Amino acid sequence: MSIIRKGVVVSGEYLGWKIFVDDDRDGGTGGYYLFLEKNEGEGFDYWFEHETGLQAQLVDFDVEWMASSS
What secondary structure does DSSP assign to 26-52, as a single string? Predict the structure, then answer.
């Protein structure tokens, strides 16, 4: 898996939570993971087979994305 986006939720129920999107299309799951983390002990994830599902879920969050390192 490789992190393809990361950011911070800037409003709503998950204000201040970190958000990560991992690409696992070439890995064991063959899809995408969306991780939300409040701290190292609290968080959850979603799994999506296709990018369209991932994009549909992301509209539920107001995220300030970090600049890409590429």
Answer: TSSSSSEEEEEEEETTEEEEEEESSHH
pLDDT, residue 1, reads 57
Q: Looking up tokens 């990560």, which residue turns up?
A: 20
pLDDT at residue 40 in the model: 78
Domain boundaries, the chain: 2-65
- CATH topology for 2-65 is SH3 type barrels. (2.30.30)
CA distances (Å), 40 to each of 7, 16, 44, 52, in order?
Answer: 16, 13, 11, 28
Dihedral over Cα of 19, 6, 45, 31: its sign: positive
pLDDT digits (tens, 9 = 90+) for 33-67: 999 999 878 999 999 999 999 999 999 999 999 98
